[in-house]
Every structure is written in structure tokens, then in C-alpha cells.
Amino acid sequence: MEQSLTPQESLKLIESMIGQARRNFNRMSFYFLLWGFLLISAMVVTYLLRDSVSGWQHGAAWGMAGILGGLISAVRGARDGRKELVNNPMDTTIGWLWSAFVITMILLIAFSVRSGVDPTIVITILTGLPTFITGQAMRFRPLMLGGVLFWIAGVAMLFVPDALGVLVIYCASMVFGYILPGILLKRHEDGLRTA
To answer: How far apart, in Å, are the Cα atoms of 98 and each of 31, 64, 169?
Structure first.
């Protein structure tokens, strides 16, 4: 037989579920920091080696960053998943959102490479979607603004005629779209741990 909750008990239950979801979200700071630094590194290496005839000019740095980041993220995600006592529906939804983003990104990169088109602009614009939605789900304004910044950066890259300009815009979007929100999330996460 089910017990009915008083309004006060219902409110406490809802508040505890929201608190658990926020604690779960805050562990995402690691991923934003990891991917921000890896992708900036890949962009800088690609720019520096843009005139070489080796595979570096054609995306080897991006491939290495993707493989390294994917492995580190998978190991960290598996470890964090084992620690969680409860997996709430929002965690699952955000996980599927980022999985769909990765699949879409890989397909867009493959089509771009096959067509001989640099995928940087379209990937930057695409990155805004899961970043913005994750920020909205977390009610974390820096990530929401980061998503908007990725959209703006992608459009701005369309009007920049040289590789250095694209490098600067891309790296700035990573700093303000992933790294800065990641640092702020980490500070919030550390504050939750000490509270």
C-alpha cells in the first residue's frame, strides 16, 4: 500500500531530487575542461602545420584529440557511473544528447572531408546546440551563453578570410564556451562538496 505525502514532504522530496540532479550535473566540469583544452590544442597544431604535406594538415591532430578525449571521457564516465547510487532521467537525457551530438559530428566530418570542405564552421555551430541545452537543463547561465557564443562564432567564421582569424575565433569560443563555464562549474561543484 502506497503512502500519500503531505505537501511539505512532497516539496522536500522534489527539492532533494533537484539537489541530486545539480550535484550530478556539476561533475560535468571535467568534460568541458578536458574537451576545451584538447580542441584548442588540435586547432593550434592544425594551424601551425597548415602548410605541411603530411596528414597533420588534413586533420590528424583533430583525430588524435578525438580519440584521446573519447577514451578519457569513457573511462571517467564509467568510473563516475559506478559511484552514482541513483541515475535520474535528466542525466540520461543529457547523456543521450551528447551521444547524438558526437554521432552527428562524426557524420558531418566524414561528409565534409569527402566533399573537400573544412568542417570547422559547421561543427562550431553544431556545438552550440548540446552546450546550450545542457546549460538550460542545469539552469547554468554560463553554459547557455557558451552555446550562444558557439553559434555566433560559427557565423563569424564565415566572414573571416584567413586561417589566423578562424583560429582566434575558434579558440575564443572554446575558452568562453567550454573552459570558463567548466571552471565555474568546478568551483560550484567544490562548493557543494564542502557544504
So the answer is: 11, 19, 23
Task: Judge contact between 33 and 186, C-beta under 8 A.
Answer: yes
The residue ranges of DSSP E strands in the chain, in sequence order, are none
Distance of CA 168 to the CA centre of its chain: 19
Domain count, the chain: 1
Look up the pTM and report it: 0.83
End-to-end CA distance of the chain: 36
Q: What is the pLDDT of residues 99-118, one digit of tens each?
A: 999 999 999 999 998 998 88
Q: Is residue 12 part of a domain?
A: no
- What's the domain range around 130? 27-194
181-to-12, 186, 188 alpha-carbon distances in Å? 29, 8, 10
Count H helices, E strands: the chain? Answer: 8, 0
Integer Cα distance of 92 and 169 in angstroms: 32
107 within some domain: yes
Identify the DSSP state of 86: -
At residue 27's C-alpha, the angle toward residues 91 and 134, to 5°, is: 50
- Of the candidate ranges 15-19, 43-47, 77-81, 130-134, the one whose mean pLDDT is the lowest: 15-19
